[in-house]
Write a structure and sequence with these properties.
The complex is a heterodimer. Chain A is an all-alpha fold. Chain A is built from 21 helices and no strands. Chain B is mostly helical. The chains are: A mainly alpha, B mainly alpha. Chains A and B meet through helix 14, helix 15, helix 16 and helix 17 of A and helix 2 and helix 3 of B.
Chain lengths: 492, 78
């Protein structure tokens, strides 16, 4: 629901103003109930009811395991069952096999789609699974059932993270919320959080929303075009250029949403994890995912990649390539399916898996030799690094075509991957991206450091925050008249 | 033999670098072959050598060898 972009910060700010800076523990005490109210406000009562069922059923099973089966092996069997039930509910509600649509009458289909899209279900599933399988910090199990249920509901339903916000981690959440501290250390801390929300709103309105309309129009235009008769180099080049721009747009869109949610969370005494750390400086796909949508990447690393690879190593598998292939294809395959069940999403997962595996093979077999040949710090080394930076950007842009482009156009694109026109268009786009990166660096070096009035706590800072909000909301409202979709990941 | 020395021996063997010297401040950036795959191998070797099981969510967040030593010693003592 697009409303979450505005409802979440407004609700967080209102709660902070009512409770005050020194009453963080009281805010956290009422957090599950306030979260339920916000979820019902944004998504409706049916969404809240579905969310409660989704988080309660696996938890009830895990709780049953804790009470009735104190033995480790038996407890794990029930916890595994709880995870499977959670995944089963996820698959049913996301309707991966069209079961829900078959069961529902025609009139109910739109309601069902609305219900699930409002739920942020894909993000909820991460939190529920983690709470089922990761042991909480010491002391948590000694708490009463009511206190544990309260913390579990706070963790799974906390509203700044609920609507596709960063994926909070179970142990971090419990440790952080157990600490006794005020909401903000000082007024500068509060202004910095407010500024983060305002910056997110500004980027969402000014950069993200207009670009979204460009991509919606491009998708419609390409779907209606007769690509078979188009000039091949131009058509492939256009799709390639759009894919690079789409990745930049996705970054603005998602990082702006994350800024709003992280800033809002701070007003409730919650420190949500960061999601982005300059992803476009990455020189390979593994590095990119250590910087992009980090909270989900880290979740997959901790709960899929590392357990699978360490199990293989313990079982005596010596080949790094085989371990990496299994770990990467499983992680990225699941990541692709998590985004959607259709073949472009599965292809996206496969392409990312292939890319990550190629990086690993290069690292294992050639990196040392290539680095020696290039000479660390040499001009040749810097040029290759720049090329890899642009090529990584382009490869990921192509991999995520399924997020925005219609299946017919993707099919046309894939059918021509072996043509020289594709290679020529790709090289042209990569060289152009390299030029843009160099230009960006040149401009960044010449920009002044943060000006005095921009610093948290300075006199003009409050006015600047207000201006950001006004401009962001104003532009957003103008573009919302054209198309109401404004946050891409809401669909997941 | 200190925990640091034992980790250094494991790393020398794993990364095939006999003259590798580490300190508590050493990070993955400082060791060429210390990537995500070899990090998992390193943790498995450490678990075997010390006879412990390190929590996955913690081992993936370690910033340097000093934090790895602290985690091993906390697990051993606790």
């Amino acid at each position: 629901m697009t409303e979450s972009i505005f409802v979440v910060p407004l609700a967080a700010l209102a709660i902070f103003l009512v409770f005050g800076n020194e009453n963080r523990r009281r805010i956290l005490a009422v957090l599950p109930f306030l979260s339920m109210a916000v979820i019902a406000w944004v998504g409706g009562w049916q969404t809240l009811a579905t969310a409660l069922v989704f988080v309660s059923v696996p938890a009830a099973l895990a709780g049953l395991a804790a009470v009735t089966l104190p033995g480790r092996a038996e407890s794990w069997r029930i916890r595994l069952l709880a995870v499977l039930v959670c995944l089963g509910l996820f698959v049913f509600l996301k309707d991966y096999f069209d079961v829900a649509m078959l069961l529902l009458p025609e009139a109910g289909e739109a309601w069902f789609v609305q219900l699930v899209s409002a739920l942020g279900l894909s993000f909820l599933v991460f939190r529920v699974i983690e709470a089922m399988v990761i042991a909480p910090p010491k002391g948590h199990e000694a708490l009463g059932l009511g206190a544990r249920a309260h913390r579990y509901l706070s963790f799974t339903l906390a509203f700044p993270a609920f609507f596709s916000g960063p994926v909070t981690r179970w142990r971090d959440f419990l440790t952080e919320t157990a600490a006794d501290a005020p909401v903000f250390e000082d007024s500068a801390d509060m202004m910095a959080s407010l500024d983060r929300v305002a910056t997110g709103i500004l980027i969402m309105g000014v950069l993200s929303q207009p670009f979204l309309l460009v991509f919606l129009a491009a998708d419609r235009g390409l779907a209606g075009a007769n690509l078979a008769e188009a000039e091949l180099l131009g058509a492939l080049g256009l799709i390639g250029v759009l894919s690079v721009f789409y990745l930049a747009f996705l970054f603005w869109n998602f990082s702006a949403f994350t800024d709003i949610m992280i800033g809002s969370g701070r007003f409730l005494g919650l420190t949500l994890p960061e999601n982005f750390r300059q992803p476009f400086v990455a020189q390979n796909l593994q590095e990119f995912f250590a910087r992009w949508h980090m909270s989900v990447s880290q979740w997959f690393r901790d709960l899929v990649f590392t357990p699978v690879v360490s199990l293989m190593i313990r079982r005596g598998v010596r080949s790094n390539t085989f371990c990496a292939a299994t770990g990467f294809f499983l992680s990225f395959g699941l990541l692709g399916i998590w985004h959607g069940r259709t073949w472009p999403f599965i292809l996206c997962g496969l392409m990312l898996g292939v890319g990550a595996l190629c990086v690993q093979i290069y690292r294992d077999l050639y990196r040392k030799r290539v680095n020696r040949w290039l000479g660390p710090g040499s001009a040749r080394h810097r040029l290759v690094a720049l090329f890899l930076q642009a090529a990584t950007f382009y490869y990921i842009g192509i991999s995520v075509l399924g997020l925005w482009l219609n299946a017919g156009t993707i099919g046309f694109f894939l059918r021509n991957l072996a043509r020289w026109e594709f290679a020529a268009a790709s090289l042209g786009i990569i060289f152009a991206t390299m030029a843009v990166i160099l230009l960006g660096r040149w401009v960044a070096e010449r920009l002044p450091a943060r000006v005095a009035w921009d610093r948290p706590g300075s006199a003009g800072h409050g006015a600047r925050i207000a201006a950001k909000c006004l401009v962001g909301v104003g532009v957003w409202l103008i573009f919302a008249q054209v198309d109401e979709s404004s946050f891409v990941y809401q669909g997941f | 033999m200190s925990t640091l020395d034992r980790i250094q021996d494991i790393m020398r063997d794993l990364f095939d670098e006999d003259d590798l010297t580490i300190s508590p401040g050493t990070t993955a950036e400082d060791v060429e072959d210390w990537d995500s795959m070899n990090h998992v191998r390193l943790i498995v070797e450490i678990e075997r050598d010390f006879g412990i099981e390190l929590p996955i969510t913690e081992v993936n967040r370690l910033k340097n060898v000093g934090e790895l030593i602290a985690l091993i010693e906390t697990t051993l003592n606790g």
